[in-house]
Amino acid sequence: DVDSSYYKGYSENPSLRLIFHNNGLSKYTSKKMPWKLVCIISFTTKKEALSAEKRYKKYPLKSLVAVINSEKNIVLHYLKGIENR
């Protein structure tokens, strides 16, 4: 959020990973705190997830924003559910 950058990374526990990054426990991410979780995409296998991570890290910002706003994003489904209450 500090410089409008997005951290892309594989995690089996995204909430815990977010806490890790927001507590300055990673040299790279500590310089850009606070982080917020804007996208989670589920994959069938770890191999698929790591392959997607590698691909997303090469995406230009416009393409990355399209992924964040896509139906694949579990966070958006959750937020839409809250809005519809």
Give a verbal description of the structure.
With 85 residues, the protein is an all-alpha fold. It has one domain. The protein is built from 5 helices and no strands. It has helices spanning 14-22, 27-30, 46-56, 61-68, 74-83. The radius of gyration is 13 Å and the shape is globular.
Write the topology of this structure.
Blueprint: H1 14-22, H2 27-30, H3 46-56, H4 61-68, H5 74-83
Task: Looking at this protein, list some descriptive labels.
single chain; 85 residues; mainly alpha; 5 helices
Helix content percent band: 40-55%
What is the 3D shape?
A: globular
- In round numbers, the mean pLDDT is 88
- Summed up, the helix count is 5
Q: Determine the structural class based on helices, strands and strand pairing.
A: mainly alpha
**What integer value in Å does the Rg equal?**
13 Å
Biggest sheet: strands, sense, closure? none
| Beta-strand share of residues | under 5%
Distance between the first and last residues' Cα: 28 Å
Our count of domains comes out at: 1
Oligomer: single chain
In short:
The protein has 85 residues and is mainly alpha-helical. It contains five helices and no strands. The chain has one domain.
